[in-house]
Amino acid sequence: MRTVAVVLAGGIGQRMGAGRPKQFLEVGGRPILSLAVAAFDAHPGVDAVVVVMAAGHLRAAAALTAPYGKVAAVVEGGDTRTASTVAALTALADEPADAKVLFHDAARPFVDAATIDRVLAALDDADAVAVGVPSADTIVEIADGTVAAMPARHTLVRFQTPQGFRLGVIRAAYDRALADPALHATDDCGIVHRYLPDVPIRVVAGDERNLKVTHPLDIVIAEHLATETETV
Ligand SMILES: Nc1ccn([C@@H]2O[C@H](COP(=O)(O)OP(=O)(O)OP(=O)(O)O)[C@@H](O)[C@H]2O)c(=O)n1
Ligand SMILES: C[C@](O)(CO)[C@H](O)COP(=O)(O)O
């Protein structure tokens, strides 16, 4: 059974505001992109890695990821995360429908082998798998600056990546999504949930260390985590 990991690095890091895509910033002396790719390259359950990179940065990404032997391709992404996933699916056109595919944010450099293990194991009998962590905050839905809904916190988790799918399932979900002119999603499980509502999405435990480097403060936290990771 083939397993391919897709590392999504097609964004430009607007919220980070670093003047270049945040996946090139270093934490613990290594580029964020390298850390994310290295996690999948080193995992024994992963056969190949595809990197999706923002336009204009493909050569730099290819150079950074050259040391990782499982990197099979570096392809250009799209204007949105969703469009970058579609670019990856196009690059995976020759892979079999029963292959396991993991989509991971390059912006999450501290994904660990145990998290990848949990997603891969769940994909043995589920077609779609998400990684979630409990919320320490109360989460509310707002409308016009006031609370519209307050879901019970114990029913909520925050999604991380990797999100895993049988390739045929995520292909089918995106085929439907791309026919929808109102398509908008913040993750790949959202595409399955909306366009293949009969497919259950299994949720496995994530890890608080698997943070998404999004804002400048996250770099400070990531530096700390990188030091901690080196010493454990
Ligand atoms: N067009 C895009 C947008 C995002 N991503 C990737 O999806 C992950 C999560 O996105 P996010 O944290 O939003 O990254 P950016 O889009 O770079 O950040 P921002 O929204 O602040 O511009 C990142 O690894 C990012 O590179 C992508 O592959 N293609
Ligand atoms: C996929 C994701 O990381 C799950 O939490 C998140 O939705 C990505 O959002 P972003 O706005 O593209 O960073």
From TrEMBL:
- Feature type site, description Transition state stabilizer: R15, K22
User: Where does the signal sequence lie?
Assistant: none
Q: Which residues form a coiled coil?
A: none
Looking at the keywords, is Nucleotidyltransferase present? yes
- EC number assigned by the record: 2.7.7.60
Annotated Pfam families: IspD (PF01128)
Q: Does the keyword Nucleotidyltransferase apply?
A: yes
Site features described as Positions MEP for the nucleophilic attack, chain residue numbers: R153, K212
State the superkingdom.
Answer: Bacteria
Pathway it acts in?
Isoprenoid biosynthesis; isopentenyl diphosphate biosynthesis via DXP pathway; isopentenyl diphosphate from 1-deoxy-D-xylulose 5-phosphate: step 2/6
Keywords from the UniProt entry = Isoprene biosynthesis, Nucleotidyltransferase, Transferase
Q: Which reaction does it catalyse?
A: 2-C-methyl-D-erythritol 4-phosphate + CTP + H(+) = 4-CDP-2-C-methyl-D-erythritol + diphosphate
Question: Which InterPro entries does the UniProt record give?
Answer: IspD, IspD/TarI, IspD/TarI_cytidylyltransf_bact, Nucleotide-diphossugar_trans
Similarity section: Belongs to the IspD/TarI cytidylyltransferase family. IspD subfamily.
Role according to the record: Catalyzes the formation of 4-diphosphocytidyl-2-C-methyl-D-erythritol from CTP and 2-C-methyl-D-erythritol 4-phosphate (MEP).
What's the protein here called? 2-C-methyl-D-erythritol 4-phosphate cytidylyltransferase
